[in-house]
Amino acid sequence: MFITPNDPMLDSALAFDGVKEPPGYPEETFRKAGRRAGSVRLAGLRRVFETPTGPLTALDGIDLGIEPGEIFGIIGRSGAGKSTLIRSINRLDRPTGGSVLVDGEDITNLPESALPAVRQRIGMVFQHFNLLSAKTVAENVALPLKIAGVARRHREAPVARLLDLVGLADKRDVYPVQLSGGQKQRVGIARALVTDPDILLCDEATSALDPETMLSILDLLKDINRRLNLTIILITHEMTVIREICDRVAVLEAGRVVESGPVWEVLGEPRAEATRRLLRSTALELPEFLTARLKSKPAPDRDALIRLHYAGPRAFDPVLADLALELGVRASVVHGAVDTIQDHPIGVLVVAIPPDAPVPLEETLLFLTRKVARVEMLGHVTRR
User: Fold this and answer.
1) What is the helix (H) or strand (E) element at residue 345, kind and residue range?
2) Separation of CA 18 from chain center
């Protein structure tokens, strides 16, 4: 279950002291052994909003399958439909068409009275924490249990265990104003887990944090995913988040999925222009000494500058050696980097092709296109 400061259930919950116990609610509620992580299926999902200027399509036929236990990322620029999509998964927003299946159950058209039970299986972590300032850390974490009608004596144990899990056991009696941004988000994560959900939704959960704190929160989410056998679905506009934590990713653009697949594959061999735009922020930039001399047109004293993208098994191929052996073209490596994502090598090399190469530049480019994931012609540079 998730709550916000404006939740209509909140006023009654704060006045309730937990004197009842829902039938069958276990005393020990910390990820029962053998519990299967949740799955999500989106089929033809549509959401159209009526605005003063006419209909606005936020989601336009989304088809996605999210497997139990994986960390699935949804990335896109502002306005791509990410928030509407994630709000559809817990029925915080009702789709216009299509279906949302959670663990095989179609929740698309469930009545409001049935949604609290669904939301107890789906935790949510918010971008801006949404903690209640007048409540202590422990009281914030316990609040979903209080709303669910769990007796006070049964709240203490799960709250204590979760605060220990997120590294805040010593902060249980302090108030949110005394916490850093990263600590507030850890409280938000503990609160999202307190009802023992099968699925955890993260709505831009790291975008309000500095880079170092962001990495610590991502490490925590990876640990929770592994230790609690929990499916995590996160939305973000930051490619760094995707490459650090996700197993698979879907790229949204104008309410549609334009690309999806394993993270190493999507990042290493992006097919959609929207993906390439998102990758530009993390792309290997040319050093200044090359960009200062880069020209658009060839000349007798200028080398052609080409950027080669490697991904997966092809990263091990001796491409430049083959280029020299088969075409007689001797390329110089002037810049580059290699990384590993999900045990797959991802690399970028910038090479210079001399103007007096024995074959036309077009033939060299065609040869390289067959050998690597992607080839970019950057321009021409004068040798020093």
Assistant:
1) strand 344-353
2) 36
Token pair 């993260």 is at which residue? 202
Per DSSP, the residues of 34-74 read TPPPP-EEEEEEEEEEEETTEEEEEEEEEEEEE-TT-EEEE
For 172-181, the pLDDT digits (tens) are 999 999 999 9
Give the SS3 label for residue 274: helix
**179-213 pLDDT per residue, tens:** 999 999 999 999 999 999 999 999 988 888 888 99
CA proximity to 69, closest of 281, 268, 269, 227 = 227
| DSSP structure class, residue 8 | T
- Where are the extended beta strands (E) located within 291-331? 294-295, 302-311
Half-sphere exposure of 57 (CA within 13 A, CB side): 11
114: its two tokens: 């049935």
User: What pLDDT, on a 0 to 100 scale, did the predictor assign at position 316?
Assistant: 81
Joined tokens for residue 201: 């939704």
C-beta contacts of 13-19 below 8 A and 24+ residues apart: 13/143, 13/146, 13/147, 16/146, 16/147, 16/149, 17/152, 18/145, 18/146, 18/149, 18/150, 18/151, 18/152, 18/155, 19/151
pLDDT-based confidence at residue 286 (cuts at 50, 70, 90): confident
**Angle, helices 181-193/137-147, rounded to nearest 10 degrees:** 30
Phi, psi dihedral angles at 155 (to 5 degrees): -85, -30
The number of C-alpha atoms within 13 Å of 198 and in the hemisphere containing its C-beta is 19
* Helical H segments across the chain, by residue range: 10-15, 82-89, 115-120, 137-147, 156-165, 181-193, 211-228, 239-245, 263-268, 273-279, 288-291, 319-327, 361-371
Taking only Cα atoms into account, the Rg of the chain, rounded to an integer number of angstroms, comes to 25
Counted residue by residue, the chain has a size of 384
Q: Quick check: helix, strand or coil at residue 311? A: strand
Q: Are 228 and 193 in contact (CB under 8 A)?
A: yes
Name the nearest CA neighbour of 210 among 181, 169, 238.
181
DSSP 8-state code for residue 110 = -
